[in-house]
Design a protein that fits this description.
Elements lengths: L6 E8 L5 H8 L4 E8 L9 H17 L4 E4 L2 H5 L2 H13 L5 E4 H11 L4 E6 L3 H13 L3 E7 L5 H4 L4 H11 L6 E4 L10 H8 L3 E3 H12 L25 H9 L3
Parallel strand pairs: 1-2, 1-3, 3-4, 5-6, 5-7, 7-8
Helix pairs in contact: 2-4, 5-10, 5-11
């Protein structure tokens, strides 16, 4: 049976997340398996990134036991909250626990934005203002500009999943400024991938979402370049970026465009 599996993707996700798994199962190629491990790390169970590290390592080891080819710490807010240095520390801890390729949601998002040539971003999220501000600070530290967008101010995953794709679509259409190169709809637990193509058509600009970016990045890390038409322009391009073990290489590449 394993001979029919081309790659295994391991995801470390927040315990409250209910959308990553169905979205990945919907759009991953038939011969790619997606495995998940959950951590209590967000919302009421929030743990600072530095304190979370031993549990991330344990989760990495568990997914390595499942023979995953690439393992992703998959929570946008958590992977960005401590800046580039915090994100690098996560990658280093994970890399020390496995021979698989490792990444975070931040790694995949930055790579996607860079691959699409997006330098000026309209950033939308469901988060409260402090969490949203951490993400704005992270992408700016990585050399990008945040020129618009907004946050919904929602308190946790139960609220995130109630926001309809149509709401995200209209929000981005109405609040993306003309000088934005593209849109980043941030969060792994929102219904954003469903509207990528329609939003790209409406704005005539590329769109990145957390789950879309990580699926694209993980597949490319495994040498798989299968297009997924529903997931927009990102899946129509070839990318020869780095292997996902050093975010500074991505951020330097993005910064060099400024």
């Amino acid at each position: 049976m394993d001979s029919a599996v081309r790659a295994r993707v391991g995801l470390i996700i927040p315990s409250s997340n209910r959308l990553t798994e169905p979205q990945m199962q919907r759009w991953a190629p038939e011969d790619v398996r997606v495995h998940t491990t959950r951590l209590r790390m967000t919302g009421a169970n929030h743990v600072p990134l530095a304190e979370l590290m031993p549990r991330v390592v344990e989760a990495t080891l568990a997914l390595a036991d499942a023979k995953c080819d690439v393992i992703v710490f998959h929570c946008t807010a958590a992977s960005m909250e401590a800046g580039l240095s915090g994100e690098r520390s996560v990658l280093q801890a994970m890399a020390g626990a496995t021979t698989a390729k490792v990444a975070t949601t931040a790694t995949g998002a930055l790579a996607a934005l860079h691959a699409l040539g997006i330098h000026r971003i309209a950033l939308f999220s469901p988060y409260v203002s402090d969490t949203h501000a951490h993400e704005v600070a992270f992408v700016r530290e990585a050399g990008l500009e945040v020129v618009g967008g907004s946050c919904l101010g929602l308190s946790g995953g139960d609220d995130y999943i109630q926001v309809t794709p149509e709401h995200w679509l209209q929000l981005a259409i109405n609040e993306t400024p003309p000088d934005a190169d593209g849109v980043f709809l941030s969060c792994t637990n929102i219904r954003a991938p469903e509207i990528i193509r329609e939003l790209e058509s409406s704005l005539d600009r590329p769109v990145v979402t957390s789950n879309q970016a990580v699926l694209w990045y993980a597949l490319r890390a495994c040498g798989i370049s299968a297009p997924v038409e529903e997931l927009g322009r990102l899946f129509q391009i070839e990318w020869n970026g780095n292997n996902g073990t050093d975010t500074t290489k991505i951020s330097r590449a993005v910064t060099s465009r400024s």
